[in-house]
Every structure is written in structure tokens, then in C-alpha cells.
Amino acid sequence: MNGLHHVNIDYCECDNAGSAGFHYQQLLRCGFFPATHIEPHSCGTFAVLAHFHMLNLQGKIAGYDYYSGLEKLTDNAGLSKIKDCYKAFMRMVREWQHLKMLKRAGRAHFLSGIKGTKSGELALICPACPHPNINLPKDWKDRPPEERFLYTLFLAIDACFRLKRRLVSSEKKDPGLGTGWAFFVEDKAYRKYLLTVTDQNEISSCTSLSALDHANSKFSA
Questions:
Q1: Which of 147, 42, 27, 138 lies closest to 87, judged by CA?
Q2: Using only C-alpha atoms, what is the Rg of the chain?
Q3: Which of 174, 185, 191, 194 could bridge 169 with an S-S bond, Cβ 3.0-4.6 Å?
């Protein structure tokens, strides 16, 4: 990874070019991930996408900061005008991470393929939670009462009543990739459910508990 580059690419246009595939397929075979499958003009190498993916997960490096670093590697003095490909880069990152999730779930080995993915099938099970036949002893059901707490599943939810950043765009402008396939529920079903519930007046003995006082307002956490 040493910056942003202008690269001339000659696609296969032979008489039997059909066997070579479309332009985006030829790019993928060469290790370039296209920002779009329709007349791609911007690409990211598999190496740079994998590198950012790892740093994003382990080092919490934001996409904007990583891309800014690529710009600095290209021209740290700021003497030349660099084409802004930040949006294209983030689109590639999003698709790359989605494909990685599908790959690790083994969806290519299912007869139904990616389209046959069901709700929650891409979610990873919690390794710390008790799972029979996986991380529990065979006699866990027969343990004495004073030891049963060792195999109890504890579920908790925090006090965040609202995801504010969910309002920055719309499904039409920013459609999801495989919504409902992992940890979040499917968006359309969730919005349909919201229409069936109304604001509730919470009863609390706590004085000035903001989490409850503003649960139904835009000031909620």
C-alpha cells in the first residue's frame, strides 16, 4: 500500500472475449476490486481492502482516516491535485466486508446460494454463552442447584433507546446489503413493527433519569 495511482488497463476485446468475462470480472481476476460493475473507472486492490479491514477491526481506524493516509502517501506535500475517490473507496470496503461475511458463512456451498440466506444465518454465535454439545459438559442438566448458575444464559440490553445515526440517510439512497442476515433484524419488517407500537410513559422511581425522561424524544441516547 503506497498511495493512489493512475493505471492504464487494456481489457480483452478479442473475438472470444466472452470467455474472458465482463470488464469487472477481468479486473477481479487480476486482484482489482471495482467500485462499480458498470464501466468501472476506480478500483482498489484486494491487498488494500484486506489491510483496511484488519486495521478497522483491530485498530478502530476509520475509513476517512485510512483514505487520508493513502492521499498523504501519494503526495504528502500537497503540491498536486488528487482526485477524490473517498466515496468509491468506502463503497468497495462495504461490498468487500459483505462478501467476506458471506464467504466465512460458506454460502457458496449451499445449493440456494447467496439468495437463499435466511435471517440471522450470517451471525456468529457467542463463544462465551452456554451451548449444549459445544461448550457444556454432558451432565450439565444434572448438576446440583448450587452449580446451575454456571450454565445459565444471561441476556442484557443497554439503555440506548434510539440509534441517531440511523437517520442520516434513507434505504433508497443507501440500501443495505443483506439486511437481517446477521445481528440486526430485517429493516422492512422492523419498520412495519414500529407502526404497531406507540410511545409509552415509563414509570421510574429514579429522580431525573434522562434515559427514561427522553426515551421518546430526539434527545434520547
A1: 42
A2: 24
A3: 174
In the chain, at which residue ranges do the beta strands (DSSP E only) sit?
32-34, 43-45
The dihedral through the CA atoms of 16, 19, 24, 28 has a sign that is negative
The SS3 assignment for 31 reads coil
Rounded to 10 deg, the angle between the 86-104 and 63-74 helix axes is 120
Q: Which residue has the higher pLDDT, 45 or 194?
A: 45
pLDDT at 216 over 80: no
Quickly count: other Cβ atoms within 10 Å of residue 2's Cβ: 8
Cα 13 from Cα 23, distance rounded (Å): 10
State pTM to two decimals. 0.78
* Cα 101 to Cα 97: distance, rounded to the nearest angstrom: 6
Q: Of how many residues is the chain composed?
A: 221
Q: Is a pLDDT exceeding 50 seen at residue 175?
A: yes
Residue with cell 498511495: 3
Most confident listed range (10-14, 43-47, 199-203): 43-47
Amino acid at 116: G
Q: Where are the domains of the chain?
A: 1-104, 161-221
Distance CA 93, CA 35 (A): 9
